Amino acid sequence: MNVPNHVAIIMDGNGRWATKRGLKRSAGHLEGSKTLEKLAIHAQDMGVKVLSVYAFSCDNFKRDPEEVTYLMNLIVKYFNTKFEKIAKRGIKVLVSGRKTNLRPDVLEAIKNIEEKTKNNDKGILNICFNYGGQEEIIDASINLAKDINNGLDITTFTREDFYKYLYHDLPPIDLLIRTGGELRISNFMLYEMSYSEFYFTNTYFPDFNKSEFNKALFIYQNRDRRFGGLNASKNN
Ligand code: IPE
Ligand code: IPE
Ligand code: MG
User: Fold this and answer.
1) Tens digits of residue pLDDT in 27-56
2) How many CA atoms lie within 13 A of 102 on its CB side?
3) Residues having CB within 6 Å of any atom of ligand 2
4) Of 28, 50, 135, 231, which has the fewest Cβ atoms less than 10 A away?
């Protein structure tokens, strides 16, 4: 089976999932966090090495303060208490995003979970939090500029080399999934998705269960990835 090495998910539709049930939007975020916990383990079972998820964008600060506070509290609670199953599975948790504008307890929770799982080597869960794809490219470029100022020779600098300047040096995304029905990228991992296959579904994230995930893996297997070249077996 041709399993994608790196899967990324734009976990969208939590709010609508809740509203449809007459619940507050926060109920959708709570349900979504439970879905994420199950999916992280399932992805590992299916052979996916890296799972990146969009949990909070830089632009999500535009929302009501009440919703922002709820999401901040949720990440602290999850990192401090609910990520044991993931840690026990040998999954390393990484957090990508800007560390500015975050509360001290949120920063502390991020530090703790990264520290606690740093020696794990059975898979990676990369949580994008206070994250923006353009921001990541800007931050990487600033760090690269510093190295150039310090004498780095860039005459042979490649697009692979640029990965080392991103928040974490992860492999390119093979499969990008967006739940919730919108057909856009919303400033997610722009650099890493240059050749990824896209899978969009109307399913709201809290309902995106194992079989929905498997459906995306199945569709991926039938895609013809050419990376700008030709696929010899299919183009004769
Ligand atoms: C995604 O769900 C989670 C976050 C952005 C934090 P939304 O909150 O965007 O849910 P919808 O799109 O409003 O339904
Ligand atoms: C993208 O969803 C961000 C996350 C899933 C965390 P949004 O709901 O914020 O995106 P837009 O506003 O629909 O583009
Ligand atoms: Mg949304």
Assistant:
1) 999 999 999 999 999 999 999 999 999 999
2) 25
3) 10-12, 54-57, 60, 182, 184, 186
4) 231
